[in-house]
Design brief:
alpha+beta
C-alpha cells in the first residue's frame, strides 16, 4: 500500500502503523483474491482472582500475533486488538482457512504449546474462557466503507480506492448494481 494516498501514514518498524492521519474521503478496500478469511479470537477472565490462570493466556495471544506478523508466509495479513475490562479480542485477516489451520496445528509454532497449556492448566474448570470464530469471505459477499478514517480493518489488507461509481453504494460494492440515492439527500 504505497503512493500518495498513504503518504499521511507515519511508519515505524517496517510497515507497523503507529499514528495514521485520517483520509478525508469515502474509501473502500478492493481485495486482491477471490476469498479471504476473517478470524476472531479472544479470551474472557472469568475468575479475576486467579491471575496464574489468565495471565499466561493474555500473554500468549500477542506473542502469537508477533510471530505471525514477523512471518507473512504463514498467511496472516493483518490483526487488531480490542481490549475490554475482562476480555480481549483479536481480529485477524488471513489469506485462507488452510493457512490458519496449518499454522494452528504446527508443532514448530507458538499456537500449539499455548493450546496444550490451556487444556492442561485450565481445561474446563471455568477460570478463563477462550473462543474463536472463522469466516471464509468470498468476493461479492462483503463490503466496507471508511469515511475520514486512516486505513482500518480490510483497508489495511486490500487496496484502498475512492468510493466512486460502482463503489459509491453498499449495493454497488457488493456487485449487486447501483442504488438511486437522488431522493435521500445524502
Amino acid at each position: 500500500m504505497e503512493g500518495a494516498l498513504h503518504d499521511n501514514i507515519k511508519v515505524q518498524e517496517g510497515d507497523r502503523r503507529i499514528m495514521a492521519a485520517p483520509i478525508n474521503n469515502y474509501m473502500t478496500p478492493v481485495m486482491p483474491d477471490e476469498e479471504f478469511v476473517v478470524f476472531l479470537t479472544g479470551m474472557r477472565i472469568n475468575r479475576w482472582w486467579k491471575p496464574w490462570k489468565w495471565i499466561r493466556v493474555m500473554y500468549d495471544m500477542p506473542r502469537m500475533c508477533r510471530e505471525l506478523q514477523a512471518n507473512p508466509e504463514h498467511g496472516m495479513m493483518h490483526f487488531r486488538y480490542h481490549v475490554g475490562f475482562r476480555q480481549m479480542m483479536v481480529v485477524q485477516y488471513w489469506k485462507s482457512f488452510d493457512h490458519i489451520h496449518r499454522w494452528a496445528t504446527s508443532k514448530t509454532h507458538t499456537h500449539l504449546p499455548a493450546w496444550r497449556w490451556m487444556n492442561k492448566n485450565v481445561g474446563l474448570n471455568g477460570d478463563v474462557g477462550t473462543w474463536h470464530e472463522t469466516y471464509v469471505v468470498k468476493r461479492g459477499c462483503y463490503e466496507a466503507l471508511y469515511v475520514n478514517m486512516p486505513p482500518h480493518g480490510l483497508g489495511n489488507v486490500g487496496e484502498l480506492v475512492e468510493a466512486r461509481g460502482k463503489h459509491r453504494t453498499a449495493r454497488g460494492r457488493m456487485g449487486q448494481g447501483e442504488d438511486d440515492w437522488s431522493d435521500l439527500g445524502v
